[in-house]
Amino acid sequence: MFRPGPRNLITDVAGLRVGQASDDRLKSGVTAILCDIPAVAGVQVLGGAPGTRETDLLEPHNTVETVNAVVLAGGSAFGLDAASGVQAALREDGVGLQVRGHTVPVVPAAIIFDLANGGDKDWGRYPPYRELGYAAARAAARDFALGSAGAGTGALTAGLKGGVGSASTVLPGGIHVGALAVVNAVGSVTLGRSRHFWAAPFEIDAEFGGQGYPSPIPADAQEVRLKFRDKAANTTIAVVATDAVMTPAAAKRLAIAAHDGFARAIWPAHTPADGDLVFALATGTSCKTVADDAAIDLYAAAGATMARAIARGVHAATPAAGDLFPAWSSRPA
Asked: Cα–Cα distance between 2 and 147 in angstroms, integer?
């Protein structure tokens, strides 16, 4: 029923570009999703420890219905500075909401906690995230790296490195759905200590290793394996996007549906120690609306595509000096 787009990235949704900037010494970075035209947006937060900027304005009852970019960053609360860098780049380009002769780019953001990942965080007086955000905006393109890049540079999960993942789906009627996730969960994306991903039922064309589910299911599959038990130092943050025409309320519903992908790909998810969040973007570039009977397929695709993006982020992670956890590619078969 579902097939991936040509890139199998969120940028298969027309009207979106992604830019990333990383600091390997810091083991952190920024991922920016830029909208070529303002996109209708929504958000849903289900984790207990979120770090955000400009999320209240995305509620359907509020005035501003579209955004110019979404920023995902490392650095915990320090990383929220990244949105200012993206905002600066957009303002230089004359992109933003026009208010009484002034250009104000609308740039919501969310962060992961990656401070305790082995990187050097001795950055001096001001953190580097504003400049990383500016660099990410200037690098925006249709193609971008997965795994240990951008906001996923220093991401960790329970026992494995995390990373940036993305995937796309083309619905039978031609509407596209894309997802991008920065996977830094307190939980595990694999069944126990195996190489098999929880998201396996949704995999297309061996996009994250083609492992499927093991038989028999490992005895430790139900073990609650956590990265850290002593702090709220985690979070998976993500964007789900479509080229369908949507209202702000429908975009929020899309964000809610995409959280199903978290539950399908991470065990456990939505914990008090995670800041799990999904932004939704509807570019409207297909000029197609979604009829009631097709909406179920769209929202199902949102969850499935998100699950695939999460698995792909961990699958693509690469080893680096000073890592606390190994990359998936280093786990024995």
From this structure: 24
**Continuous H helices in 38-194:** 82-92, 129-138
Burial label for 274, CB within 10 Å (0-12, 13-18, 19+), is: buried
Q: Which two tokens stand for residue 90?
A: 């957009």
Amino acid at 169: T
Hunting for tokens 């197609």 — which residue is that?
A: 288
Token pair of 167 as six digits: 């995937």
Using DSSP's 3-state secondary structure scheme, residue 277 falls into strand
pLDDT tier at 131, thresholds 50, 70, 90: very high
Mean pLDDT along residues 240-269: 97
Inter-residue contact 70 to 109 (CB < 8 Å): yes
Amino acid, res. 211: Q
Q: Are 201 and 184 in contact (CB under 8 A)?
A: no
Residue 104's beta-bridge partner residues?
97
To 10 degrees, what angle do helices 82-92 and 129-138 make? Answer: 40
pTM of the model: 0.96
Give CA–CA dist 313/261, Å, rounded. 13
Instruction: Write phi, then psi, for 306 (nearest 5 degrees).
Output: -65, -45
